[in-house]
Amino acid sequence: MNIALVTYHDQGAYDSETVESEDQRLLIFLQEKGLQIKMVIWNDPEVNWEDYQLAILKSPWDYFDLINDFHQWLNHLEEKKVRLLNPIDIVRWNTDKQYLKEIEAAGLDITPCSFIKKNEKVNLNDFFNIYHTDKLIAKPCISGGAKNTFKVTAENIEEVNEKLSLLVQDENFIIQPFLPEIVENGEWSFIFFNGVYSHCLIKKAKDGDFRVQPAHGGSVHPQHPDQSSITTASEYVDRFAKNCLYARVDGTFVKGKFLLMELELIEPFLFLNTDPLNYERYYIALKTLM
User: Fold this and answer.
1) How many beta carbons lie within 10 A of that of residue 40, not counting itself?
2) Which structural domains are found in the chain, ordered by start?
3) Global confidence as pTM
4) 61-72: burial string, b at 16+ Cβ within 10 Å, e else
5) Torsion sign across C-alpha atoms 5, 12, 264, 254
6) pLDDT tens per residue, range 83-131
């Protein structure tokens, strides 16, 4: 079986050194296990996808910048009967953060959120009252890497209102209350392989920032959560990530309750280097699903 480990065309916009390190180590590990696998750029026009029976999404980090092309690529894989991990229908669903409302409707806890539709009038002052807060987070529904993400306060609200009024001409936005727990305690990530818990970590923003991504100076701290926390995180995976090679459950604890921020099923960094056994757990899950 020929396998494509799917990545992106690196143009220096993201934390390429970090992702390249994880991708290369994983590729070598899987090759040493005897798999016929190679790194492939998802939108490389020279690739003949009929040469591959299986494609594994690893780091298509620019998919949200090229969302129409990405959906066309998913359609192409479907037409050519190339099996994708994670499954195509789940990936399509996960591209748009409006999936959070579906998760909430299933009875699972999420960070409170509202949506501004494309071309809708923007007035962020309304959301201060809705969420009884003096700080908000605004970001596109289709996004990653903190692209066009704003922390909104009374001091900059007019500036952000003006920027969003332009941005919503092209896309939908999600509005959420800013959770101080993210700055104080960090953002938790629970990683699962084929529905089985693997490892956990906390991502913390650098001093003076709210973005936890390594590209923005965030730091990573491996954790050993209690079984209750793992069970809570697994509920999101069991309900919405069936037959997924990987799932990353991102959120934070507010007054002892876990609130989901995002269920990452397309291109999450998996922090495999935090434990040598993570690679083996990934491989076992892959072999089970192959």
Assistant:
1) 19
2) 2-94 (3.40.50.20), 99-109+181-276 (3.30.470.20), 114-178 (3.30.1490.20)
3) 0.92
4) bbbbbbbeebee
5) positive
6) 999 999 999 999 999 999 999 999 999 999 999 999 999 899 999 999 9
